[in-house]
Amino acid sequence: MKIIDGKNISKEIIKNIQEKVQLKIQADSYSPKLAIILVGDDYASLTYVSAKIRTCEKVGISTQLFKFDDNVKNGQVIDKINELNINPDYHGILVQLPLPSHLNQREILDIINPLKDVDGLTSSNTGLLALNRPRFIPATPLGIQKLLIESKVEIEGKNIVICGRSNIVGKPLFNLFSNDQVNANATVTLCHSKTKNLINHTKNADILIVAVGKPEFINESMVKEGSIVIDVGINRVKDDFNNKGYRIVGDVNFDSLMNKVSMITPVPGGVGPMTIAMLLENVLKSASYI
């Protein structure tokens, strides 16, 4: 069994991006710049944003954080995005999700200029991916594809089963891997909370990708011998033996799968680092559009 080390793979990608950013700065006398919109004080969102800013700065990408209180109105966020849309100093715009429930997430995302939509979540960029004409691919799906490529996994013709149909991971993954492209052309099944007899699908997967937000949901009985498992989940579970009082686990029971699968991503250190690396790649790409 091989552990797919997203941390090491992402380091090489980030190093490569850093070199490209420096070349761009030398050629054009400016660095790509990312605007990040954060609403509220959600601990996880603050942590993710800090990691994104820190990694951007490491490679030479400029960032600007625009922070709003929890009670901000929909129109205020939209006004800020419209300002950023027409400001040529900003090449990429990212709205940190999730947003508070009183805000219209779809309306806010769709206000972003599609040429600056580095998360690939506007309806325009979502549609282009579905039409096999991708502009920006969401960072987590792109990172998963890159993990498989770097791990020398053949994707074409394989049975890929995705558990979870979110607009951020599951649905774009379905389009990405089923499209007629290099490192795609798979037979893809998208499972969700209403799927009947889920185990019948997961046990048929050559590559199983799990993004359901439930700690250790997938166990040994649900996977095929020798399959490849990509765990997108990140969950806190109570652990009285840990100094922090909790431990981080994925959506897959890692220990029970170790001796049955051929490859698996750990949590943490698997998909997470790749998501940030692919965001940087999208920001660098956005600088060529503006």
Write the layout of secondary structure elements.
Layout: E1 2-3, H1 6-28, E2 33-39, H2 43-59, E3 62-68, H3 74-86, E4 92-95, H4 105-111, H5 123-130, H6 139-150, E5 159-163, H7 170-178, E6 187-191, H8 198-202, E7 207-210, E8 228-231, E9 235-238, E10 246-249, H9 254-257, E11 263-264, H10 271-286
Helix pairs in contact: 1-10, 2-10, 6-10
Radius of gyration: 19 Å
Order of secondary-structure elements: EHEHEHEHHHEHEHEEEEHEH
Overall number of strands: 11
* Share of residues in strands: 15-25%
Shape: globular
- Number of helices, where a helix is a run of at least 4 consecutive DSSP H or I residues: 10
Described by strand count, sense and barrel closure, the largest sheet is:
6 strands, parallel
The rounded distance between the terminal residues' Cα atoms is 45 Å
Name the CATH superfamily assignment of the largest domain.
NAD(P)-binding Rossmann-like Domain
Task: Describe the 3D structure.
The chain has helices spanning 6-28, 43-59, 74-86, 105-111, 123-130, 139-150, 170-178, 198-202, 254-257, 271-286; strands spanning 2-3, 33-39, 62-68, 92-95, 159-163, 187-191, 207-210, 228-231, 235-238, 246-249, 263-264. With 290 residues, it is of the alpha/beta class. The protein has 2 domains: 29-113, Rossmann fold (3-Layer(aba) Sandwich), CATH 3.40.50; 139-271, 3-Layer(aba) Sandwich (Rossmann fold), CATH 3.40.50. Helix 2 packs across helix 10 and helix 6 packs across helix 10 (271-286). The model has no long low-confidence stretch (mean pLDDT 97).
